[in-house]
Amino acid sequence: MKLKTRLLLIVSALLALSIVATAVSLAYNTQRAILDQAEDDGKTLAGIIARTADMGETVETEAESLLSQDMVTSARIVSHFVAVAEKAGLSPKEINRHLDAMVGSDDLGEIGVTDPKGKVYLHSEPSGGFQFRPEASKQPQASEFWSLLNSRSGVVVQDVLRRDMDGKIYKYVGVSGIDKPRIVQVGLDGKVIDTMKRTLGTQEYINRIVKDSGVERVWVVNQDLAVLHFAGAGKKSAELSVIDKANLNSAMRNNQIISDIEGDRITVAAPIHKETGDPDAAQGSLVGATLLHIPTETLHEALVRELIMTAVIVLVVMFCAVLMLTHYTNSITAPLLVVTDAAHALQDGNLNMALLDPVARRMDALGVLARVFQEMARKVQGQKQELEETVVQRTVELEEKNRLLEFAQQTIENELDVAHSLQQAILPAHFPNIPGYTASAIMLPAKQLAGDFYDYIELGNGRVGILIADVADKGVASSFFMAICRTAIRTVAETLESPAQVLSEANRRIYASNPKSLFVTVFYGVLDARSGWFTYANGGHLPPYLFGATKQPEKLPRTAGMALGVVDDAEFGEHRVHIAPGDRVFLYSDGITEAFNEQGRGFGDAALATALIAVADRSPGAIIQYLVDTVKNFEGNAPQSDDLTSIALARSFFAGSF
């Protein structure tokens, strides 16, 4: 038997069997599903009515609460809109027009926005021009909103009240303005709220159920079976039958929804419990029950219609299926055999493209398959060679790009090394030769180029300027800015004596040469070696420590001033301390106190003070080395997070002569 015949018989038999089985199963399941669904719907509806009956007393309050929240949201939207509109330059008339549109689209009664004195100047009619006052005696209703003028996030929600301006019943809510003191108020006519409440009652609800859901009768009773609410189609009696009363008593006694199919109707009874207000809490006390009569007449009619439609569909589908299978068996099997033969030929490497031409001329999916197969076969032979050539070409291109990248990277590294060497070269290697004083300094950059720097400036007559600074950020830009700052401060220091004046003048020069808006913290002090007085000014830098063998480390008092380069007219204060024989002064950048270990913990001021106590009697060079070793040991394997710069100055017990 040929493939065509076998395919036709097998598919026809399977299709006929599946259609008949489906029809029988569908008829039975339809009958059960309609009845079960009607019964389940009745239970669900009874449960809903039971909950609705008890919630009737609280639903009005909850609805008004939700309405209040919606009005608060609308008021906040208006507050944001008015702030944006005024900032955009809209006139009050244009803003009022938009407020009128809001009232029309959001079902609000009116909108009013006041100025900071409580007078309504933006409004939708009729609230324009009203003046809010704080005295409750003069404005019993409106005075509650006065507090919003003194708050940026205040909210006032009122019940339905008689408003002060004309005695009409309205509900108002208000919020504070977001950009300036103002009252933003929205109102809703009390008649709208009354209408809403009336439509939420239990009687209205069961009336709609009887009208719209196909229920014949609905009762809501108390525990004594006294009828509280009733709704029935046509002129149905509200009297309960003996069976109805038995069902209601059973539902209340067993505390569960019950249902029963009796002839031409479905009866459902459900208990009603007092709402507790907590959706997760146990049910409240039993207060009554609800009973529904649902007619089955319409259900039987629906079942008959479904069965007739199913039978017709079965006959039509079986007839059409046989015709279609007979027609399409030939059209499917023949092209498939051709494509199969072509696939084998392609696998063997001797495909004749003309073999697929009759199938490729078809306009259906098989024709598309044949054409795609032909195109694929044409491309397969050329793709291998093309792929190999492409791989070779791309490999050569990648190797060349990698070479250029490596060369560029090496060039950058070399230039950065040169810049690093130049940066280190401008830092002073030794402290000036001043009898009785020694100093040592270090600057370890976090990257190849640093933003920290220090300097010694010889001023003559036994005076020397000591400078330490920290430029914001790190890298190339900071290193260039560092050079600008150092030059500016050194130039000014050679002409002005007061440290405060030096920082003030240097700040003006730095600000004028700062296109990237960088800034630098600076500590600059002038040491008078003859007297031991150290006069300094601080431009936002960490204060140095003064300590000695018999003196605990203490930070130098701060002076007025801020980082240089921020504003052009910054002013700076100055202070002076006496450096006694044996004292040490330790100047440093935040690369020491803000060094972090692998756990992310910072070194901090306490650890620095402890380290200074340990080296209080050592030379400046030993102090510097000890601090660097201590910080590095603290960091462990964590990378250096910032430039590490420090200066240690010591006055010996035996001073030489000048």
Automatic annotation (TrEMBL):
Name of the molecule in the record: SpoIIE family protein phosphatase
A family per Pfam: SpoIIE
Signal as UniProt keyword: yes
Record domain HAMP: where: 330-385
InterPro entries: Bact_Sigma-Reg, HAMP_dom, PPM-type-like_dom_sf, PPM-type_phosphatase-like_dom
GO-annotated molecular function: phosphatase activity
Segment forming the signal sequence: 1-23
4Fe-4S found in the keyword field: no
Any one cellular-component term (Gene Ontology): membrane
Record key words, sorted: Coiled coil, Hydrolase, Signal
